[in-house]
Amino acid sequence: MGESRYEGRVALVTGAGSGIGQAVAVRLAGEGAFVVACDLDADGLSATQKAIAEAGGQASTVVGDVCMPADVERMVAARPGERIDLLANVAGVMDHFRPVTELDDDMWHHVMAVNVTGPMRLCRAVLPLMRAAGRGAIVNVSSIGGLTGAVAGTAYVSSKHALIGLTRSTAVLYADDGVRSNVVCPGGVATNIGRTATPEVPWAFERLQKSFARTTRTAEPDEIAALVAWLGSDEAVNVNGAVVTSDGGFTA
What we know:
single chain, alpha/beta, Rossmann fold, 7-stranded parallel β-sheet, 7 helices, 7 strands, 15% strand
């Protein structure tokens, strides 16, 4: 099972049915955590749970939508015991690279609900548990789209900027309770988020492509998972409110 930085700890991971979330769930379980793995994709969660079990780890799964308050409650309630030591908000969607003039209200609300409101509700739900324990870590997965407007559409970029604000506010307000909050900003990663990344407005995508030439490589999900696991561990005890890029130098 490798390292045991999370032995005896509980981690809640959203988006755990594929991509970065799946890699985070499997890695944390491999380091000793009991993982509450959450996703809308039941088949993906089954694959995640199987991978964890085959490696000797422990996990429960919750098929649910971070946009739904009742599902968020079920995710938090699925923990064993009274603690959640790490919340990893990984679930996210893109916006088909739509600029603001081509953006309808439904897409705006959906992207904001998945990428910002869901993480906020999960933070709100787990923070009382962390404060009672006197410790805890939150790691939100944003994007280089939270640092620049040059990689996606208006809704996605706005949501990922907002997630950084949520992270920083939480870091400041709950540091005295022993809770740390940090955010990871990946560049391109080999995941299935592409299902919401099909360009739908040619002229906007053509303009955005000018920045894509700076891309040096596409990361593997486990490369991002390694960073999430470190930020949530005691090794990062002095890291709070940090915005950590993992983009191969794109934003450099």
